[in-house]
Amino acid sequence: MKLDMNLVLEQKQELVLTPALKLSLDILQDNSLELKERIEKELLENPILEVREGSGPSRNFSSYAPWDRLEDKLSLKEHLIDQLSYLELEDREDRLLRRLVEYVNRQGYLVEEFIKDVYFHNYNKEELDKAIWYLQHFSPAGVGARNLSECLILQLRNQGHDTSIALDIVTDDLEDVAAHRLDKLAKKYGSTMEEIEEAIRLIQSLDPKPGLAFHKDDGPHGQIADIRVEKIDDILSFDLNEGVYPDVYLSPYYSSLSLDELDDRSRIYISDKTKRANLLLEALAQRRRTISGVMELILEIQREFFFHGDKGMAPLNLLDISEKMGCHESTISRAINGKFLLFENQLYSLSYFFPSALEGADGRLVSSLYVKSLIEDLVLNEDKSSPLSDEALSREVAKKGIKVARRTVAKYREEIGILSSVFRKNF
Length: 427
Hints:
Strand content: 5-15%
Largest sheet: 4 strands, mixed
Number of strands: 8
Structural class: alpha+beta
Number of domains: 4
Strand order of the largest sheet: 3-2-5-6
Order of helices and strands: HHEHHHHHHHHEEEHHHHHEEEEHHHH
């Protein structure tokens, strides 16, 4: 076999991130607490930076401090983090699991929004699956589930019912239970009606919303808001929570130094640190401009939400915002990543304001949150002795000019924490 060596001239395009661009993207993706840690670390390493007097966490708020943790009592997230501290994990695993806990909602479910978080792109599927496995083995049993079926499966296994008929039913046949097709279940599993009824009673004894035990009221717990929105009459305004992290600036002393008067080593050191400080300050300013621009558009497009709730939410995606701002979708993704908005004492993830779109009968687009609000109203007013199945809910929503598949109804119902008809009916 003959080996030849040749020189080949090849032209190709590739994106090269400059240090300034990389820092800017990282800072844009940080939430307020992450940015606080980054700035504090930079202050320790860079003497060129100083903290403006009266800024940062020491800032004094009025009697109502909307940025503060609104509750001192143990929340679900704090309960999960407390359990995490007992695990002997590598730093990388610990950071992943802590980030995952942020996407556990008040019902105890791991919401699908976590998939959109670009932070998780730093981990492979095996690492992510392992972290979810840890989360789903915390207490309360059922926490970290991604849907009702998985929540019930986790609880049954926690109680030692790994080989029970109840486990098989919650895995594949909740719709048959909801439709009261007990004879079908008995035939499928070769069991008597009494055994099926006993399995159903076991299922009904489970907690479909295990996280609610940690939420005795509707107030948000243990989370710092990044943005606050205020409504005065018909005017909406917002401000960024910049009081969480220090307000830094270039040290007047080092800025006034003449580099010509310094030795070579000092000149290089001061020059490098000044360049790094300027990059940080510009990245902070760019972060402020980008997030403010995104928020202005959210207030404009989702204005009806702030006056009428979920029914006023319009469909919105990252492309809509990126086109209006003249930037890439990934920039908008970083701007909303892991950040929370405080409105009327309620916390919302910024990604909450980007609901998917469904098409109505007249071609008009409506948001998924609007459809969820319709489902909530239908369940609230249903006949409790004969609750609406997902198929029936789908037909009722269709009467309002919006075609939604049964599976989509089931998905939305679970996301908003509404039990299936089997749990809403007393056998």
